[in-house]
TrEMBL record:
PANTHER family: CYCLIC DI-GMP PHOSPHODIESTERASE PDEF, OXYGEN SENSOR PROTEIN DOSP. This is Phosphodiesterase. Keywords: Membrane, Transmembrane, Transmembrane helix. One of its GO terms (biological process) is signal transduction. Its cofactor is Mg(2+). It comes from Arenimonas oryziterrae DSM 21050 = YC6267. PROSITE patterns: EAL (PS50883), GGDEF (PS50887), HAMP (PS50885). Residues 293-345 form the HAMP domain. SMART domains: EAL, GGDEF, HAMP.
Length: 787
């Protein structure tokens, strides 16, 4: 019995010793774990502050890039330059919606509100500090209160070329923005401001209960380090920092990590340690000591790892062998370290690279160009800036889909990287536009190297059994020949790119003086929108004469622009500008309305003439055009068959199916349709027979030299025969000699138009000319041509 009691005492003593050791070990683990978690959470807050700064800087940079692109947009500048409040507001709404802005405001050069959301005076006052900063630095961005919302705002000047306005674009800081940061770092973010009765919270990722408690809490001071806060019975590690350098009032972002959530993963560990402690009562003291030693060592390593992370060192992994809970904890800790490192690296990479192609983006390209200029400012070595744009890329997207278009962009980026030298820089600026920077290149070799790049891009491309032929245009500007500033070189390379597209020559080198042409075009685009209200536009009419009967049947309306300062502006200069700026619809409707008014006036004078009006390719895209023409015909009481609409062959070929549908709508009204400049648009007979047209106009380039060039004469004769065989009337334009008119009569052409008969005339002058012509006065122009 005594032996049994002694055994029991020994067993009890051993159990007590082991249990005491286990309890002590458990206490050590508990304290060490909580300390480690607190240290880890504190370091996560510090890391989160750095990540927040980069996260917010990346968003600010994207916002600034968007507003810079908006301020540089030709159409938007033209709208601002117009000075019309409705035009400015419409352009601002359209452009703001295009770039996804929550707030968009246009200010006058002196800071007065011109257009945008909110109360004009209050908005202008709120933007005043930002405007002062932008006047000093060239741009400004910060976090402001606008209309009771917390907005991240970027403000830049609009120049054309001098300052014409300021544009401010803002993005509201919302709960989604705070939740995005939480998804990235695991930390809550709240955007707050101290209020007399507590804290005003604008946006937060906190749960509802802690959020309510936050509104009645006392905030830590900005820059006061990490502090603990109790919100609804939950402990949070909190760090506060100001929102932006020019923030209004006490605006702060609170970065918060929940201690309860951080400790939650360790609840299972505590339970397992307790179970081990209960089972350890049956084990020897040595096993208890081994367990104790196995617990303390990995905790120390975790503490060291936390210290390394606090110092920003993610290079050493947390490696603790084993399969127990501590090893799992160390593994989770190591995964957290790797995750933070990857996210930081990803944020830094995304800030300077394009996500689709992996190439540097526009911001990085600008920095690289400025660095290259700085490197060669002393030695004046030549560098080449190549602006590259893929031709007809929109057609690829529309026909084959945006997914296929993305693959084309990736392949184009790959070809550019393979075609340039090892030290050359390649970037994607956006859309289908790329940039290549070549340093230390000989001036004479730059165009040759650009041509080689173009040849590489033009190689056939095979993607998933689809074979396409890429084409591109390249604009080339040289440093220091064409500019010594990055902005100047980029602008002039872009001008050269436009020239390459216009001339279809593939590669174009910037030509001195093109900046002035560019500025003139910009000014004309702005003034053109006011030309109608200023009564600077007028119409002239050139008659079309039936050769066989010598009757004046039609007159073609031709628009003219006499600028108040520049004088007469050629139609071949301002009509393309109208198409580029989107003003072509208003211009076409003006010509239609004035032409039908003149036709009615001729009718009242006893002159029965059809009126011909030209339509552009963009006009065909206007779905409301047929309804407008019908209303215009009814307003002026002109029969539809007295209106002839002339469309160039190249315009019809842009989208044949849509053009055919629109022509049928116009034909249904009763109007006559004519194909202008026939012979220059590469249309096929299969396409031509689908179109419900009545007339063909032979392009003047064939008519003017047909008496001297037998090839032109053959083309004219074949076109006349083709038109007649298809039941169409044929008109020859560009008739400038009596011999040309006589040859057209022998070839059976129906009508003629040109300076030999009459130049374009004002409405009343044409009426007088038609009367004289019908009376036989201009006999030299139309003697007996019947053969």
């Amino acid at each position: 019995m005594g032996r049994r009691r002694f055994r029991d005492k020994i067993i009890a003593l051993l159990i007590l010793v082991v249990l005491a050791a286990q309890l002590a070990t458990f206490a050590v683990v508990q304290v060490a774990t909580e300390r480690s978690v607190r240290s880890q959470l504190g370091e996560e807050i510090h890391v989160g502050q750095r990540v927040w700064q980069r996260f917010n800087d990346n968003r600010s940079s994207q916002l600034l890039d968007s507003v810079v692109v908006l301020a540089d947009d030709f159409g938007f500048k033209a709208a601002i330059a117009s000075g019309d409040p409705g035009t400015v507001a419409s352009a601002l709404a359209n452009q703001g919606s295009r770039i996804g802005a929550d707030v968009a405001v246009v200010l006058s050069p002196d800071g007065r509100w011109q257009a945008g959301q909110g109360d004009g005076a209050a908005t202008a006052a709120a933007l005043a500090p930002l405007l002062r900063q932008a006047e000093a630095d060239g741009y400004a961005q910060s976090v402001l209160m606008l209309d009771g919302k917390l907005c991240q705002v970027a403000l830049v000047p609009i120049r054309a070329p001098s300052l014409i306005a300021w544009v401010a674009v803002g993005s509201v800081l919302t709960d989604d923005y705070a939740r995005d940061f939480r998804a990235l770092t695991g930390l809550d973010a709240s955007f707050v401001q101290t209020a007399p009765d507590g804290v005003q919270v604008f946006a937060s990722s906190l749960a509802p209960a802690p959020l309510r408690a936050l509104r009645s809490s006392v905030l830590p001071a900005s820059g006061a380090g990490v502090r603990e806060m109790s919100l609804d019975g939950r402990q949070y590690f909190t760090a506060a920092q100001p929102l932006g350098q020019a923030a209004q009032g006490d605006l702060r972002v609170l970065l918060q990590g929940s201690l309860d959530e951080a400790m939650a993963p360790y609840a299972a560990l505590k339970f397992r340690v307790l179970m081990l402690s209960a089972l350890a009562g049956l084990l020897a003291l040595a096993v208890a000591m081994v367990i104790a030693r196995g617990v303390s060592r990995p905790v120390g390593e975790l503490a060291e790892a936390a210290q390394r992370i606090a110092e920003g060192d993610y290079s050493r992994p947390v490696a603790i062998a084993g399969k127990d809970e501590i090893a799992h904890l160390a593994n989770a800790f190591g995964q957290m370290q790797e995750g933070i490192a990857r996210r930081e690296e990803k944020i830094l990479h995304q800030a300077g690279h394009d996500s689709l192609t992996g190439l540097p983006n526009r911001a990085r390209a600008r920095d690289e160009l400025e660095a290259a200029i700085a490197r060669h400012r002393d030695d004046r070595e030549c560098s080449a800036v190549l602006m590259i744009d893929l031709d007809r890329f929109k057609e690829i997207n529309d026909t084959l889909g945006h997914g296929f278009g993305d693959r084309v962009l990736v392949e184009a980026a790959k070809r550019l990287r393979q075609a340039v030298r090892a030290g050359d820089f390649v970037a994607r600026l956006g859309g289908d536009e790329f940039l290549v920077l070549m340093e230390n290149v000989e001036r004479g070799q730059a165009p040759e190297r650009a041509t080689l790049l173009l040849h590489s891009l033009r190689q056939p491309l095979d993607l998933t059994s689809t074979r396409i032929n890429l084409d591109a245009s390249i604009g080339l500007a040289l440093y220091p020949d064409h500019g010594e500033e990055a902005e100047t070189l980029l602008r002039r390379a872009d001008i050269a790119l436009y020239d390459a597209k216009e001339t279809r020559q593939g590669v174009a080198l910037y030509e001195s003086g093109r900046d002035e042409v560019h500025l003139r075009q910009l000014a004309l685009m702005g003034d053109l929108r006011h030309a109608i209200e200023r009564d600077e536009l007028s119409l002239q009419f050139q008659p079309k004469v039936e050769i066989g009967s010598r009757r004046v049947l039609h007159a073609e309306a031709l628009v003219r622009w006499t600028h108040a300062q520049l004088g007469p502006v050629r139609p071949d200069e301002f009509v393309p500008l109208a198409e580029r700026s989107g003003f072509i619809h208003e211009l076409t409707r003006y010509v239609l309305d004035r032409s039908l008014a003149q036709q009615k006036k001729w009718g009242e004078q006893g002159l029965d003439l059809g009126i011909a009006v030209n339509l552009s390719a963009i006009d065909l895209m206007d779905a409301d055009l047929p309804d407008f023409i019908l209303a215009c015909l009814q307003r002026h009481d002109v029969p539809p068959q007295r209106l002839i609409l002339e469309l160039t062959e190249s315009a019809l070929m842009r989208d044949v199916n849509y053009a055919v549908r629109m022509l049928h709508r116009l034909r249904a009204i009763g109007m006559r349709l004519a194909i202008d400049d026939f012979g220059t648009g590469y249309s096929s007979l299969a396409q031509l027979k689908r179109m419900p047209v009545d007339e063909l106009k032979i392009d003047k380039s064939f008519v003017m030299q047909m008496t001297e060039d037998s090839d032109d004469a053959v083309i004219v004769r074949s076109t006349i025969e083709l038109g007649h065989n298809m039941g169409l009337r044929v008109i020859a334009e560009g008739v400038e000699t009596e011999d040309s008119l006589a040859l057209l009569a022998r070839l059976g052409c129906d009508m003629a138009q040109g300076y030999f008969l009459s130049p374009p005339l004002a409405g009343d002058a044409l009426s007088a000319w038609a009367r004289d012509f019908s009376a036989g006065t201009p006999a030299a122009a139309m003697h007996d041509l019947r053969v």
